[in-house]
Design a protein that fits this description.
- By secondary structure, the chain is an alpha+beta fold.
- The protein has five domains: about 80 residues, no CATH class; about 130 residues, no CATH class; about 200 residues, no CATH class; about 55 residues, no CATH class; about 290 residues, Alpha-Beta Complex (paralog of FGE (formylglycine-generating enzyme)).
- It is built from 25 helices and 27 strands.
- A six-stranded antiparallel sheet has the order 5-6-7-8-9-10, with helices on one face. A four-stranded mixed sheet has the order 2-3-1-4. Strands 13-14-17-27 form a four-stranded antiparallel sheet, with no helix packed on it.
- Strand 13 and strand 14 form a beta hairpin.
- Helix 1 packs across helix 4, helix 10 crosses helix 17 and helix 18 packs across helix 19.
- The radius of gyration is 38 Å and the shape is elongated.
- About 45% of the residues are buried.
């Protein structure tokens, strides 16, 4: 049944209502069952369905014979059966904001430095994500193309160019429309209530390359907003009066009913000016509104008194611009309803005001309308009723019908040619209106559609997320739930309601990025944000070969616990100490400093002339590191991450033994070894974050390394500028001191992990008594300072080359 109904709609309706973006009557979704149900079909009720009503009355197909009875019956049965879905279509992939920006970045990278600042983008990704069919998206591309060119002072029609496979991101060059000369884009983004700036590297790169804070806006919003004041007037730069902008000559007039129209020759073709009148008021008989009696106006003894006017002028590219004026000839945003009425808007339940731009485009969808003059014939038929000067004026200004028809045809053809160059389809035959254009003006129809209520799919897509994530946000945020909670129940919400909630919605769905750097309130310790991500953990066979070739002391058995290399996902961002914990910090927090490279330490002679406050703490047990995390958490007002009962201490108060369990507070903790390696690599794949070769210019390692260079063979200040930070901003991840991790050491931990499916947030909690250490030290050869190296000691062990750094998972 559904298949047969679809076939009928395709053969009988599709050519005018969807094919190639055709949008007759604002109906461009003949094959989109979801839109049909929303707009024209009431499942289970054919007689209440507008689609079937028009078919049954023979009103559709327009201009053709009625549908055969058997086809009408098929449609009726399909609707009566609850309008089942058509044949399943290929599910369109969701395009995330990140992917959308990625398309822009690739496009910008292909452009020249000279062009990039002028490139801007219009997006339809949200409509694609909402399930709009390709034909509906094409209607939007056509409407966008016509509008940007209708706002152009450039001499050529330039269609926005799609840059992605789905054609949902379209590029323009501001110079094509002379928008670079009038600050148009700044005015556009200032008016955009849906503007969202993203913090990702991709987004920031786009903003930097275009030198623009927001180089993209939604195409459907733009078509709605830029087709009416104030944006329409601002982008075109309309003056207070049209004569300030357009040079024109040679006036020609035509009048029909209570409207008079003038045609002037302008620099770019024609300039038309109409005079509009209110209905005659018996209380004001003195007003000169009868054009036959007052043909010479405005002004003068036989001049008429008008109430408003419309100016239509050719743009340099052949399209038309519009301007509404009051009786004094000054620009107004919309015409009063007692003078002019937008019947199409009224039919759609909208305010019937004639709005400058969009209403004019809708009325003049085919260019200038046919008009037949009544004044010339009337005056010349009774010349004695008028002064000779008036008769001569009428002869000169109210031109003969054939002459006027030639100019009208010339102007219509100029417009039609320009519209076709915008990519809008032309009909094979004249529609009877004198134009081969579709009767439905795309800008106006898309503007009408944009202002319709939103359903759940569209609301989620406009917010940039899937339906599931959108619904979850409504459940989480009670305020949003109250305003938009009807959407999951299938009840659309008005556009203005959605706009009012959009900022709060985006904040809920895309919370502001956490600060890149946080500081301990009690010690001043700095921790930097490590983003979530994926990496390859461990050493590859190529890594092993490279190290074996470079270091004669390396043996293959050294790499066994680092293999196989496998994918790991760190699912949540976290903060990690920029530096290893310093001696001054542990002294302040725990009231002791048991370090060897310190005054009174076992290796104090190597640092006797140095202030070691900013040297890494070492000679600490794993239990000491846990105690430090808890005490620092308490000092900073955080909930300790660990419980640490049953402490046994050494003679110097370091912790020899304790029972450690995780309480899960927001306090400081040790990194897992997966977090540590991910942070160390910082999106690199080489043995060290700075490359494949290590020497003393890169890390503080033992001078007996094959890459010798007179190393210190002692620790050094954690912020020693000699050693570069990695891409995440972490200092001395290689060398100086080994760093305790939270994991229990398991020799074969990697062997059971998939080499294709990422392991999420691994933490080893069993397998031995030992705990993992990472990073190497100043006493180790270079191979033991690689990103992938896994060392281990029992948690009570300590020496002068073992320290730690801390992490935390959230803000205080």
């Amino acid at each position: 049944m559904a298949k047969k109904a679809q076939a009928i709609l395709k053969s009988r309706c599709y050519d005018c209502h969807g094919n190639g973006g055709t949008n007759d009557g604002g109906f461009n979704y003949a094959l989109n069952r979801k839109r049909l149900v929303r707009e024209l079909v009431v499942p289970g009720s054919p007689d209440e369905s507008k689609l079937f009503q028009r078919v049954a009355k023979g009103e559709m197909p327009d201009g053709g014979p009625p549908l055969p009875k058997e086809e009408q019956d098929t449609l009726k049965q399909w609707i009566a059966a609850d309008a089942p879905s058509f044949a399943a279509e290929t599910q369109r992939a969701f395009i995330s904001p990140t992917e959308m920006l990625g398309f822009m970045l690739k496009d910008l990278e292909r452009a020249t430095d000279r062009d990039r600042p002028f490139l801007r983008y219009f997006t339809l990704t949200h409509l694609s994500n909402a399930g709009y069919h390709d034909n509906e998206l094409e209607s939007h591309r056509q409407g966008l193309s016509k509008l940007v060119n209708s706002l152009s002072w450039g001499r050529e029609i330039k269609m926005p160019q799609p840059i992605d496979p789905a054609k949902t991101v379209l590029r323009i060059d501001l110079r094509h429309y002379k928008w670079n000369e009038n600050n148009a884009w700044t005015q556009i983004i200032a008016a955009d209530p849906y503007r969202v700036t993203y913090s990702s590297t991709t987004a920031q790169s786009c903003y930097a390359l275009t030198k623009c804070e927001l180089p993209h806006v939604r195409a459907d919003w733009f078509v709605f907003s830029a087709s009416r004041p104030p944006l329409y007037n601002l982008i075109l730069g309309l003056p207070e009066t049209p004569e300030q902008m357009l040079d024109f000559e040679k006036r020609q007039r035509v009048s029909k009913n209570n409207r008079l129209i003038e045609r002037h020759v302008s620099n770019y073709g024609a300039y038309w000016k109409s005079y509009d009148f209110k209905p005659a008021d018996p209380k004001q008989p003195q007003r000169r509104q009868n054009l036959k009696a007052n043909p010479t106006g405005p002004g003068g003894p036989l001049g008429f008194e008008h109430d408003g006017g419309e100016m239509i002028f050719n743009l340099p590219n052949g399209l038309q611009g519009y301007m509404l004026t009051d009786a004094a000839g000054k620009q107004i945003p919309k015409g009063p309803q007692d003078v002019v009425v937008d019947k199409e808007a009224a039919k759609r339940g909208r305010e019937a005001d004639v709005i400058n731009g969009v209403s004019c485009m809708n009325c003049h969808w085919s260019g200038m309308l046919n008009k037949d003059d009544k004044i010339r014939e009337h005056v010349l038929s009774q010349p004695t009723a008028y002064a000779a000067s008036v008769v001569e004026f009428v002869k000169a200004v109210y031109v003969e019908k054939p002459q006027f028809a030639v100019k009208l045809k010339e102007d219509r053809e100029r417009f039609e040619k320009a519209v076709a160059l915008c990519g809008l389809p032309l009909k094979k035959e004249d529609s009877g209106s004198g134009s081969r254009l579709s009767k439905t003006e795309p800008v106006a129809m898309l503007a009408f559609q944009f202002d319709e209520p939103l359903d759940l799919d569209l609301a989620a897509a406009e917010a940039g997320v899937t339906v599931d994530k959108f619904v979850a946000a409504l459940r989480t945020n009670s305020a949003l739930g109250r305003e938009l909670g009807s959407l999951p129940q299938g009840q659309p919400v008005p556009r203005d309601t959605y706009v009012q909630q959009f900022a709060a919605l985006v904040k809920e769905l895309f919370p502001p990025p956490p600060p890149k750097l946080i500081t301990s309130a009690s010690t001043g310790m700095k921790l930097t944000l490590i983003p979530a991500g994926e990496f390859k953990m461990g050493s590859s066979a190529a890594d092993v070969r490279a190290v074996l070739q470079a270091d004669s002391t390396a043996k293959e058995e050294h790499f066994k616990n680092e293999q196989p290399q496998h994918p790991v996902k760190i699912t949540k961002p976290f903060y990690m100490g920029v530096y290893e914990v310093m001696q001054g910090e542990i002294q302040k927090v725990l009231g002791r400093n048991t370090s060897s490279f310190a005054a009174g330490g076992s290796r104090s002679e190597r640092v006797s002339s140095l202030n070691t406050t900013r040297f890494p703490v070492e000679n600490v047990t794993w239990f000491d590191a846990i105690e430090f995390c808890n005490k620092l958490s308490e000092a900073d007002g955080r909930t300790p991450y660990y419980r640490l009962p049953g402490i046994e201490r050494n003679y110097d108060q370091s912790v020899k033994k304790a029972t450690v369990t995780v309480s899960g507070g927001n306090g400081y903790r040790l990194p897992t070894e997966a977090e540590w390696e991910y942070a160390c690599r910082a999106n690199t794949t080489t043995p060290f974050h700075f490359g494949s070769v290590l020497n003393d210019d890169k890390a503080n390692v033992d001078r007996n390394s094959p890459f010798a260079g007179g190393d210190l063979v002692r620790t050094t200040a954690v912020d020693d500028p000699k050693y570069p930070k990695n891409a995440f901003g972490l200092a001395q991840m290689h060398g100086n001191v080994f760093e305790w991790c939270e994991d229990v050491f398991d020799e074969s931990a990697y062997s059971g992990r998939s080499q294709t499916t990422p392991k999420s947030d691994p933490l080893v909690t069993s397998g031995s008594e030992a705990r993992v250490l990472r990073g190497g030290s100043c006493a180790d050869f270079f191979m033991f300072s690689r990103s992938a190296v896994r060392a281990r000691f029992t948690p009570a062990f300590r020496n002068g080359y073992i320290g730690f750094r801390v992490v935390c998972s959230s803000l205080p």
